[in-house]
Amino acid sequence: MTQRNGISGTSDRILHSEASKVFQQANGMDHEKIQEADDCELEERGQEGGRRVSVAVTGAVEAPDGGWGWMVLVATILVLALTLAFPSCVGIFYTDLQNEFHATNSETSWVPSIMTSALHAGGPFCSMLVEKLGCRATIMLGGVLSGLGMAASSFTQSITELYITAGVITGLGFCFSFQPAVTILGHYFVRRRVFANAMSSTGTALGLCALPVLGNYLHTEYGWRGSFLILGAVLLNCCVCGAVMRPLQPKRHRGQPLMNHGPPPPDENSESKKKGRARTIWSSMLAFLSKHMAFNQFCNNLRYRVYSIGITWTMLGFVVPLVYLVPYATANDMEPSQAAYLLSILGIVNIVVRPPFGIVFNMPWFKGRHVYVFSAALLVNGLSNSICCIGPSFHVLLAYVVIYGLSMSVVGSLMFTVLMDVVEMSCFPSALGLLAVMESVTLLIGPPLAGILVDRTGHYFHVFFACSAVVASSAVFLMVSFCWLDKKERKALNQVKPPTAPDPAAPTIDIVPGCQYSSVSTEGDKDKASANGAEYITSV
């Protein structure tokens, strides 16, 4: 009898399965689409067994928060050291480039400006490469491109050629290495994400510490051309770092992106038959922008909009002091070696301070308060630029780089963490791409505007005054805006209050959908709430 019941139960399950398949086919859905929808739903929930689930390639994979992730973290640190910190070291060769090509301050400043701008503006192209090649191959491609760009720069004969080789080619190589490294690190770490981001940001500090010393030594021994050639070989180490960053889950389909949960691409042939060619191109362009640049997030997510505008304004004056610090010091009779050591001291301060900051900011008390700590540090960073106006002596500039380095450590530790708090992880690559493109505009025009200011006034300290005003104003904007948003959302929550006592006549199981209640939430509850589309309200 038991065996017969088992056979009967199995038959019922088979019949139920066949009926479900027939019903799915009748509605125009096949089994693979149902599985993709389930995978996407699992990723959106972001939970499995009380822990956040990260999606790699096409399926849901639990973030290891350790293991091989520590190797990925070390590789990310080295990538950031070789990419983000590199444009600041061009200031060591600033005077030589001016004398070699008979260029003004404004013309010479376009070299690090174009390099930094291309590093950020290449975000959409980088997203396409990640979709086709994956993070590992894209990082290695960026290492090859940046190495070849710097090597070719050593053979340039005009400042315009230097714009293309050191600016565009090397900058795009930095972009292809930097952005995929940050993205894949966010998939390896979820529970320890704040600490991992803070540790990875020490890569920029490591580069600021080591690259000026290396650049000054190479400049003394081999000149600027030999230095660029050797630095090009150093940048090839990004290929080694990229080889370490293996995906969390093997690809099931060639060419699948790291995170692909959108609808399947439309049939271009049938689309072109129904609509005109121009309309098809327009729809494809909109689909590309929606996929690789988070315009929908910018339009619908007010927090992301405020944050991206504030960061874009910040970058107009955030990196300019690093470009003009060495020329400012050498123009006031400071030895070039001493001026280069200022950047190294700045890097040492970042290396020492960022890991403890990462541990502190990972504490539960800072949950939801990252943006305010970030804004306060940005305000201190902006005001610290005015210290340079006191005088060009070594002791004054030493005090400046220490204060600037402390505030820069907090800003660098929390910049990507705040972005991950503002948008969901599934939208992070496209959100980072749009933010990078917006940053590239101000990063491009910042140093040349400062160069024009120096050419017209003949003094460098005006540049530091202007940078102080720009960065401080952006910090105040972020702080006031997020405070207003939090008050507005708390007010909206207070207007919807649960009843003090349940109505005894009403059944207790009838709950109005969408009503809000007050409870002591856990980490798992927060992740579930954010993944189900509910907006998690931070508090000051």
UniProtKB/TrEMBL annotation:
Stretches assigned to the Major facilitator superfamily (MFS) profile domain: 71-491
Positions of transmembrane segments: 68-94, 137-156, 162-182, 194-214, 226-245, 306-327, 339-359, 371-394, 400-419, 431-454, 460-485
Any Pfam family hit: MFS_1
Keyword Membrane: yes
GO molecular function, one term: monocarboxylic acid transmembrane transporter activity
Residue ranges, annotated region (Disordered): 254-274, 519-540
Locations listed in the record: Membrane
InterPro entries per UniProt: MFS, MFS_dom, MFS_trans_sf, Proton-linked_MCT
Sorted UniProt keywords: Membrane, Transmembrane, Transmembrane helix
Membrane topology reported for the UniProt record: Multi-pass membrane protein
Superkingdom of this protein's organism: Eukaryota
Any GO CC annotation of this UniProt entry: basolateral plasma membrane
Chief localisation class: membrane
Name of the protein: Solute carrier family 16 member 5
Lineage of producing organism: Eukaryota, Metazoa, Chordata, Craniata, Vertebrata
